[in-house]
Design goal:
Elements: H1 2-57
Length: 67
């Protein structure tokens, strides 16, 4: 009997830990997604700024084509 009770306790504890771990993984995944989104937006903002900077300080020269 004692073995069955300890087995049940261990199973309950294992289920509890599994549930906690899955919640932890879910939170970590959400945080990583947020960080990736922030990185993407920062990268886009930087590229936009950099392109404007280059156009302002180093404008493209128009080339006349021969006919």
């Amino acid at each position: 009997m004692a073995e069955k009770e300890t087995l049940k306790k261990l199973q309950k504890e294992a289920e509890k830990r599994k549930k906690e771990y899955l919640e932890f993984l879910k939170k970590e995944k959400e945080e990583m997604r947020k960080i990736q989104e922030e990185s993407k937006t920062k990268a886009k903002e930087f590229l936009t700024w950099h392109k404007a900077y280059l156009e302002k300080h180093f404008p493209r020269k128009k080339v006349k084509r021969k006919k």
